[in-house]
């Protein structure tokens, strides 16, 4: 039995390709691990707040010294960290928005990146503490970034690889529904993405 966390950051609800791709990935994970449990976190619907000065400050105050107000400020971040640490597999829906991830997914990243909890500093530099997880990324984009002229602007996959690796999640596989706005490509983009799914 695996615990799966599905992060959603699409603006397009039922029309979303990254959500469809995420569901297809989860279906294949469940084929492999039939009793798996899925938790879905829609970061856009949740209206996850941006990291702000009050929340950041609480990150550096020992838990037993937090005031009631500070505890309330940090509650959201604490819950997201607890959820992340508890799961085995994370499926991250990452639609391309203006060349990068949606701000809701970036806000989640900012809330789970906690010195001393999800990463630390060792003699040789940062050490990720979120280990033993498998991550699948369900990317969707109007253009094509895995090859051709767009490859020079393929920022999202390398960014997520770097960030997740920083926290210790080094086992990452990216699946792409791409060219969703490109004539003659868009018609088959989703089918191609779903066919590319392999669960290791
Ligand atoms: C506000 C906005 C910005 C976008 N920016 C880009 C972009 O920079 N590059 C790109 O290839 N596609 C871009 N797209 C297209 C989306 O990546 C595409 O519609 C994709 O299907 C979104 O994922 P979703 O279907 O899961 O919502 C953009 C779409 C929106 C709505």
Describe the structure in your own words:
With 200 residues, this protein is of the alpha/beta class. It has a single domain (3-195), classed as Rossmann fold, CATH 3.40.50.360. Helix content is 36%, strand content 22%. It is built from six helices and seven strands. The strands form two sheets. A five-stranded parallel β-sheet has the order 2-1-3-6-7. A two-stranded antiparallel ribbon has the order 4-5. The longest helix has 19 residues, at 68-86. The radius of gyration is 18 Å and the shape is globular. The chain starts with a strand and ends in a 5-residue tail after the last helix. The mean pLDDT is 96. The structure holds flavin mononucleotide (FMN). The site of flavin mononucleotide (FMN) has 17 residues, from helix 1 and strand 6.
């Amino acid at each position: 039995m695996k615990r799966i966390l599905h992060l959603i950051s699409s603006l397009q609800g039922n029309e979303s390709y990254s959500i469809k791709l995420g569901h297809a990935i989860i279906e294949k994970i469940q084929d492999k691990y039939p009793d798996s449990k899925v938790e879905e976190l829609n970061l856009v619907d949740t209206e996850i707040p941006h990291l702000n000065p009050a929340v950041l400050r609480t990150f550096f105050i020992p838990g037993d010294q937090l005031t009631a107000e500070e505890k309330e400020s940090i509650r959201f971040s604490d819950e997201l960290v607890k959820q992340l640490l508890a799961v085995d597999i994370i499926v991250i829906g990452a639609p391309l928005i203006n060349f990068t991830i949606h701000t809701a997914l970036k806000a989640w990243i900012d809330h789970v990146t906690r010195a001393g909890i999800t990463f630390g500093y060792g003699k040789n530099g940062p050490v990720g503490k979120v280990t033993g997880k498998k991550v699948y990324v369900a990317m969707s984009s109007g253009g094509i970034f895995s090859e051709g002229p767009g490859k020079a602007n393929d920022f999202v996959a390398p960014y997520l690889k770097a960030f997740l690796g920083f926290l210790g999640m080094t086992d990452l596989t990216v699946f792409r529904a791409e060219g969703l706005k490109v004539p003659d490509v868009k018609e088959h983009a989703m089918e191609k993405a779903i066919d590319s799914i392999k669960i290791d």
